[in-house]
Amino acid sequence: MRRRLAGHAEAWLHPGGPSGAFRGTIRRHERRADLGTRTHPSLDGCSVFVTAVTSGRRPLFADPRLAMAVRDVFLRTAQELGVTLHAWVIMPDHVHLLLNPGERDLSWVMRLLKGRSARIVNGLRRARGPMWQRRFDDRVVSGPRALDAYVAYIHANPVNAGLADDIFEYPFSSARAYHQFDAPFPDGHPRPR
User: What is the pTM (predicted TM-score) of this model?
Assistant: First the structure.
C-alpha cells in the first residue's frame, strides 16, 4: 500500500508482522523550496540503512586524517544520542550507516552527524562551505535477513571498491568490531563498545 507521509515523503508500507511495526522503503525525493527538508515517519524500533555523500562527490575521506575525524564524530555522537549504530563504513566520497535512531527523528540525527563532522573536517582542511550533499538516501530495514544483507554490503564496500583485500584490514569500517575482534583498528584506534 502506498501512503503519503508528512505532506511530501512517500513510503511503501507493509504489514509489520506480529508487532505491527512500520516496515518499508522511504524513497528519495526531489529538493523542495523549503530548504530540501523532509520529515520521516516514526522509526522507533526500526533500523535504517543510510547513505550520505560528500558535496560534489569529492573524495575527502581518502585522507586518513579526515576519515578518522568523521569516524570519531559519528561514534561519539551516536553514543551521546543513544542511537544504535549497527554497522558503518567511511568510503572516500560517501558513508554508509546502518542505525536505529530509537525515538529520535532520523533527519535530526543525520543533520547532527553531518553538521558536527563538517565542522571538524572543514577545520582540519581550513575550508569553508558544504562538505555533504544536502540530502541523504535511506531505506528502512525490513527484518533480520535484510539487516544481515546490509551489514555484509557495508563491510564488503571497501573490498568491492578495491580499497582493501579483506574487510578486516580497512580501518574506516565497523567490520572488526562487528565480528568481535579484540584487536584495535589498524591505526591504533580502539574498537567501539
Answer: 0.73
Pairing mode, if any, of strands 94-100 and 84-90? antiparallel
- Pairing mode, strands 48-53 and 23-26: unpaired
d(CA 155, CA 173): 7
For the segment(s) 2-29+38-178, the CATH number from 3.40.50.150, 3.40.120.10, 3.40.50.2300, 3.30.70.1290 is 3.30.70.1290
Q: For every one of its 193 residues, what pLDDT tens digit does the chain have, with 9 covering 90 and above?
A: 333 333 323 332 233 333 333 333 333 332 333 333 455 555 557 899 999 999 999 999 999 999 999 999 999 999 999 999 999 999 999 999 999 998 899 999 999 999 999 999 999 999 999 999 999 999 999 888 999 999 999 999 999 999 999 999 999 999 988 886 544 444 454 544 4
